Amino acid sequence: MNKITLFGMPAEKGRWLLIPLGLTVYLCLGTVYSWSIFRKPLEELLGIGATQSLLPFTVLLVVFAILMPITGFYIDKIGVRQITAIGGVVMGLGYILSSFALFASSLPMLVVTYGAIAGAGVGIAYGVPLAVVAKWFPDRKGLAVGLTVIGFGLSPLVTAPLARMAIAAYGLMPTFAILGVAFTAIILAISTQLKIPPKGWQPAGWQPNIVQNPASIAQEKDRLLRSPEFYGLWLCYIIGTFVGLSAIGISSPVAQEIIKLDSGLAAMAVSLFAVFNGVGRPLFGWLTDRIRPQNAAIVSYVLILIASIMMINASEGQVITYLIAFSLFWLSLGGWLAIAPTATLSLFKPENYAKNYGIVFTAYGVGALLGTLVAGQIRDIFGTYTYAFYATAALAIVGIIIAEFMLKKRHPKNTETATVE
Questions:
Q1: Burial of 182 (0-12, 13-18, 19+ CB in 10 A)
Q2: Which superfamily does 9-201 belong to?
Q3: What gap in Å lies between CA 304 and CA 326, rounded to an integer?
Q4: Of the candidates 140, 141, 123, the residue with the CA atom closest to the CA atom of residue 61
């Protein structure tokens, strides 16, 4: 079984090529984190406010959060190549149709095309590269998954400048069409190369730890939903994504409106923040292993509190303050996309991790919905984004309290760690 070839070489070597392929898929899918680049041109084109310009982004995140755990159950039934291809086509179609929605100057149509359709494509394709590399790397699952999914967080580093240049050169409407065609072509090409190992395959010299207990797995869902740790983790995850995704949605407008940066420098700043978002995943995954989920959560909230206080006092020209504060916001969001799955693995039975994290991941959708809507509403009501940071500061304090009292139970340390978005 071990003499399997992959990309024309022994599987133990060929499997490493799946990581850059999966990372490239996530670079395409992660363009959603560059939404703030589109917002100002969108507001000018359609004559809308901050709340309305966040609606497509909000709907996309919610649809993504709903479909990701659902489609995860069908990966083995339908096939990794087929699901990846379907997700890529649906996402690309959403972007292409969004250009027509902009041509028609219709925000509701944009919410459907970008939010619902492109969001569905992201949700469909998202889990596949993770599943593929996890199956090919049973001996190094945490490393392989972490290296693959980092593409989602780092995507704005590549896509934000490209989107800004395309908007400047061709306009907002053609940019969506260009991105849609490019994403479809790239993801379709990569989908043809994805495959899972044959049943029973394992790396040479590696032996799995047999911990499966079917009886306990059947009871795990009920125990999960009765556990205070689950509700503590779920609420903490909501707060982490609420703050992080609202910050992502307003990064560029805050730079232009409060700090008075031009659109080009604002786009460059978003690219910088993407680095911190990517770094936050392995960093907080490592921290969660060593200082337990409770303390890792508290660290993230302290960083959010510091960033919020900095932005409450920020004014025109304070570029360094803005860069440090939003780097911390993006770092913390990346952190929660590592804390939550790693905590799920350590707080509950690891053999039922996939289903458990599917339930925990619903917090991502709730945080996305509330965070993006509230940030836009605050801007429209008060005329400035500054007041949004009072909300993030208050939530950070609430998060520290929840983590202290609801994530404090000690559990046996697991030897296996996952870092999954």
A1: middle
A2: MFS general substrate transporter like domains (1.20.1250.20)
A3: 9
A4: 123
Checking phi first, is residue 205 left (phi over 0); if not, alpha (psi -120 to 50) or beta? left
Do 42 and 99 meet the contact criterion of CB atoms below 8 Å apart?
no
Amino acid present at 246: S
228-257 vs 35-46: helix axis angle to the nearest 10? 60
Q: How far apart are CA 81 and CA 139, in angstroms?
A: 23
Q: What is the predicted pLDDT for the residue at 177?
A: 95
The highest-level CATH class for domain 220-410 is mainly alpha
107 phi/psi in degrees, rounded to 5: -65, -45
Domain residue spans of the chain: 9-201, 220-410
CB-CB neighbours of 163 under 10 Å: 24
Per-residue pLDDT reduced to its tens digit, 311-346:
999 888 899 999 999 999 999 998 898 788 778 877
Instruction: Name the least confident of 24-28, 57-61, 116-120, 341-345.
Output: 341-345
Mean pLDDT is lowest, of 151-160, 171-180, 189-198, 303-312, for 151-160
